[in-house]
Each structure stands twice: as structure tokens, then as C-alpha cells.
Amino acid sequence: MSDTTSPPRRRLSPKTLYISAGSLAAVLAIVIVSILTGAKVTNGNGDEPTSALVGKSVATFSLSGLERGTIEAPWQSHHPAVLIFFASTCPPCQGEMPKVAKYLSHHNEGTIHVVGIDANDLSRAAAERFVKKDGVTFPIAWDPNDTVTTGIFKFATIPETAFVNAKGIVTQIYFGAIPKDVLVKGIAALRA
Description:
Layout: H1 14-36, E1 62-65, E2 70-72, E3 81-86, H2 91-105, E4 113-118, H3 124-133, E5 140-142, E6 160-164, E7 170-175, H4 180-191
């Protein structure tokens, strides 16, 4: 039998334990939210999160237009589409919408239909004020029951932007307020 004894174990301080537990909780929260919203967790190589819907066909829809009439899924009539999901109460949407509206008011997207989908406003009047203030000229669908937002696209948060080709296949989902360069590239990819 040996007389050697193992060195005494070093105890972690409560502060170290709290930091470790907090870090683990943050990572778990990111993973859970990503799974619930259909995104995948990236591997740290710079890959952007994507949706499980990319490459899949999505259902058509028919919603009341915010200003008038009915807005149907553009791919139902064989048009590619950019769907911009927003709400007037969403701070990132408040920053995103004026920029998107300004860009689109100066660019003709031809056969590509751009449709805004108001996803979370409880008041139709609030939604109308929001798009009027930002100078939105593209059609806005009213989705108070989340028929399209959570029913078809499974979005848990907004803003989100979906690019759908003329066959109804999702080509890209952008999570968060979309930068102009990403919008431009997404539209160009729908033309290709």
C-alpha cells in the first residue's frame, strides 16, 4: 500500500459557481429559443442561423389588407415574394421599416411582390398609423390571429423577413431587422 495522498481539492468560490451557472443558463436559453423558432444553432464558424423552412414549400394564405381588400400569397399566382413581418410596437421594426420603405419606394422590383405582414398589433389603427408615418407603399396584410406569422412560418419573434420563390419554396429567412444589403441580395436571388 502506498503512503501517497492526493492533493487537497480546490473549492470553487460562490462567485465562480454563479458565473458558470449563468453562462450555462444563457447557452441553454439560446439553444431552446433557436429550436422553438426553427433556427439552428451555429457552430461558431460564422454560419448564419437558418430556418428549417428553407428549401421547403409553404402554404398559401389570404389575409385582409390593412388598407383595403384581400392580400393573397404571391406564389399562389406564381410570383416570388419578400414577406416582411413586423408590428408597430416592436422597437427593431420601428428602426427597420422606414429604411425598407425608403429603399423600396425608389426601386421597382418587377414581378417580385413585397408584402408586409403586421403580426402583433392589437389595434388596426396603430398599424395604419405606423405604415403611414414610415411612408410604406407596398401592401400590408393584417394578421391579428397570427395565421401566417406563427401558423405557416412558425415565427416566435419579429421582425423577420422571408424570401419565397414563385413555386412557394422558402429560399431564405432573415431573423431580426433586415439590413439593406441583405434585402437587396435576397431580392436578386429571387430573380435568378
